[in-house]
Design goal:
Strand content: 5-15%
CATH class of the largest domain: Mainly Alpha
Largest sheet: 2 strands, antiparallel
CATH architecture of the largest domain: Orthogonal Bundle
Distance between the termini: 56 Å
CATH superfamily of the largest domain: Winged helix-like DNA-binding domain superfamily/Winged helix DNA-binding domain
CATH topology of the largest domain: Arc Repressor Mutant, subunit A
Number of helices: 9
Strand order of the largest sheet: 1-2
Number of domains: 3
Structural class: mainly alpha
């Protein structure tokens, strides 16, 4: 990439020859959500490294209204706000939920998506007011009810919800940690007070979430 050249190897073994092909100057833009999986030398060869922040609700509303115009959906402002609040700050999720709400509205609400229709549709798809789905709530429920709030290892937690450890760690855990419901500790995963509250429970005093930390001074 740095030399604007591609080497094509022709043949095999000792008789193989390399044919260099010049490439016209270009600009390479790479996008990834797993920068840690790239080697250091590869990352260093990019002249600029930027980070995308998660979208806030007003920005997601604009994304939803644009998608609704393209798809021909009658999306009301309160319906867009309801969907945007459950999208985890990600436009990809917003567009996916909008299509599913559209399907529900076509059958049950003459194609009009307002707040009530969005709520009913997302309830059918098991997406709650914070954007948690069935698996997210199963992980929280197992952590709180079965393991008293933790700490518990991710493998044990995965067995409790009937999923692979990689699914729990890569699909559920990032958002639960970002939402402040799960904390990663050296001893395992721990449910925070917000997780207990979201499930409608009160953390007992002897749980990690129920402990009060006194100030040092």
């Amino acid at each position: 990439m740095e030399d604007f050249r591609v080497d094509v190897v022709v043949g095999k073994g000792p008789g193989a020859t390399s044919i260099p092909l010049d490439v016209a100057p270009f600009t390479l833009v790479g996008a990834t959500t797993r920068a840690g999986a790239l080697t250091g030398p590869l990352r260093d060869r990019f002249g600029f490294t930027g980070q995308m922040e998660f979208y806030d609700v007003p920005e997601l509303e604009r994304v939803l209204h644009r998608a609704a115009r393209i798809l021909g959906i009658d999306l009301r402002a309160d319906g867009a706000a309801e969907i945007a609040g459950r999208c985890r700050g990600t436009p990809r999720v917003a567009n996916r939920l909008l299509r599913r709400v559209r399907d529900y509205a076509e059958v049950r609400a003459d194609g009009v998506v307002d707040r009530d229709v969005a709520r009913d549709a997302l309830a059918v798809y098991d997406v709650d007011e914070l954007g948690l789905d069935r698996l997210d709530r199963a992980v929280l429920g197992a952590l709180v009810r079965s393991f008293h709030g933790g700490p518990v290892g991710v493998s044990t937690l995965a067995v409790a919800v009937g999923e692979e450890p990689g699914t729990v760690e890569e699909v559920c855990e990032p958002y639960l940690v970002r939402a402040g419901m799960v904390a990663r500790t050296p001893r395992g995963r721990v449910a925070t007070p917000l997780a207990w509250t979201h499930l409608g429970l009160t953390p007992p005093p002897d749980s990690p979430a129920g402990h009060r930390v006194d100030p040092l001074f």
